[in-house]
Amino acid sequence: MEMESKMKILVVADGIGEEIYDRAFYEALLELGHDAHRFTWKEYYRHYQYPNRFDTDGNSIKSLYYRIQNRFITGPVTAKINSDLIKRCKQLHPDLVFIYRGTHIYPSTIRDIRKTGALVFGYNNDDPFSPEYPRYFWRHFRRSIPFYDHIFAYRWKNIDDYHRMGYRKTSLLRSYYLKKNNFRSDAVQPAYACDVIFIGHFENDGRDLAIKALLDAGVDLKLFGTGWETSDLHDFFVQRFGAIKPLYHAEYNKALNSAKIALVFLSKLNNDTYTRRCFEIPATGTMMMAEYTADLAGMFEEGKDAEFFRNHDELVEKVLRYIRHPERISEVGSTGYARLLADGHEVTDRAASVVEQYYQCKGIN
What is the pLDDT of residue 4? Predict the structure, then answer.
């Protein structure tokens, strides 16, 4: 039986993550020639600022009513999301339902969707087994696991988690970059020009101490991101940088292109061994300097495609060494860019992997 050229696919998600999450998959599936559709549930909670996405009528009681249901993933609104999703599947008759971070989807909903003849795949970019999340947060997803036809894991650790609970229909689907957002540019923006840049959120894992160590060593560094007000070094950083703000979309790409070296710190909350920035940074041709993991070193060769550090002293030593040899910065950035393109880490590559898995599940060659 030959592989069909076009599938009808419904992408299901909260719809909050702007264009880099579920919408990116939806658009990639369209680009690949498939009949893609979306179902999102953020609109069901529009009576409060969720989060600052909607204008409301200012009714605090109504806002609390919807906020509680969304936070604890319960109540009539959550039930309506599930019933509407089932109705949509019965009307659309998709070949595949791809559920991105299915926190709000009931096990019974997965079963009912499968009765329509569709396969149901799941994907999580967060770690649904992390003890850092409240127990209630992932309860619907975890109870639904046995009913999915396939679940894609963001990290190897989660594949082991699924196996421990007896679920074997799982495989790795890494994050990605978007070629329309992350690309090389020769235009250096003075506001972002520096030797080293870090664009990312704060976690209390020592990343603030690492950045301070670089500053104390005299490194020309710029810092952007969210959550830095919770760092013990926030006042110190504000004195050096002014207000620390996030960068998105075009400004994010401009900043990466304007720096010589871009840092990567890995989320301990999600037990990450790599992150999306590990693809977004090489896509700009900027040299990546990341926390070492065997996973990352398997994708980018150390000292050739990227550089890694295992502690703060190694970070400072390597940054200073590369700054003294700017030609090496350019070499590593260019080689990392070539490796990224050769290995295929763009969102359309990931969407193609989802489609390929569908055909494998159906036994179609």
Answer: 55
